[in-house]
Amino acid sequence: MDRRIDKTKKVLKETLVSLMEEKELRKITISEITTRANVNRGTFYLHYLDIYDMVEKLGDEIIDKIKEIVDSNNPLAMNYLYLPVLVKIVEYFYQDQQFIRAMISPNGDPFFLGRIQKIMIEHTMKLYKKDFKYYDENYVRVIMTFIVSGGVGVFTEWFKGGCKTPINEVIAPCEAIISKGMNNL
Fold first, then answer.
1. In terms of pLDDT, which residue wins out, 26 or 172?
2. In terms of domains, do 110 and 160 share one?
3. Residue 73 has what DSSP assignment?
4. Three-state DSSP class for 41?
5. At what angle do helices 97-104 and 137-160 cross, to 10 degrees?
6. Which of 8, 133, 173, 180 is 20 to 30 Å apart from 84, CA to CA?
7. One domain, residues 147 and 66
8. Residues 70 and 154 placed together within one structural domain of the fold
């Protein structure tokens, strides 16, 4: 992608995050974003239909990266070791923590986490289908929902708390619970 496009999108994203620190997403206007970002309104529309399209596309980037991490670090192939996968996901979130924190804040998108959860449950269901071929699909869905929802809940609290606890102290109990449970299937 063109570096100018990347730079423009980065400025628009940073401006959106800054505005979300001041007010609710639904009260932010395109005019406010473009004025504060010093970007022409037409330039905004080259990339996004509206603010909600912008938020959705930024969320899609996060979801695509999580899928990539999960696909390349299959915990089932690593004897149910979830720590490496979770660390990589959290490291990625940490790099973009201002946006993540803004999205999960009271001023953020109330559907953001639900969207990530839903897509990741479906993705893991497809990815691990062959590993659970002897189980009923509903049984596997419950397992994946439990794992994904639990992870989202733990990391949401960690982000809301300012990421103060060392990440390994957050992930280790999660891995212990998940791997012990998975080994008993």
1. 26
2. yes
3. S
4. helix
5. 100
6. 133
7. yes
8. yes
Please state, in angstroms and as integers, the Cα–Cα distance from residue 93 to each residue in 25, 40, 80, 97, 103, following that order: 20, 29, 22, 6, 12
What own/partner pairs with CB < 8 Å and gap ≥ 24 does 92-97 have? Answer: 92/65, 92/66, 93/62, 93/155, 93/159, 94/163, 94/167, 96/62, 97/159, 97/163
Q: Of 29, 48, 67, which marks where a domain is finished?
A: 48
| Residue 87 burial (10 A CB sphere; 0-12, 13-18, 19+) | middle
Residue 121's identity, in one-letter code, is: I
- Which one, of 32, 17, 20, 33, lies nearest residue 106 by Cα? 20
| Rounded Cα–Cα distance for residues 78 and 81 (Å) | 6
pTM as predicted: 0.80
Tokens matching residue 133 = 């071929």
Q: Which amino acid is at 72?
A: S
- The 10s digit of each residue's pLDDT in 23-75 is 999 999 999 999 999 999 999 999 999 999 999 999 999 989 988 888 887 66
- Per the structure, the complete domain to which residue 30 belongs is given by 1-48
Decide: 158 and 170 in contact? Cβ < 8 Å: yes
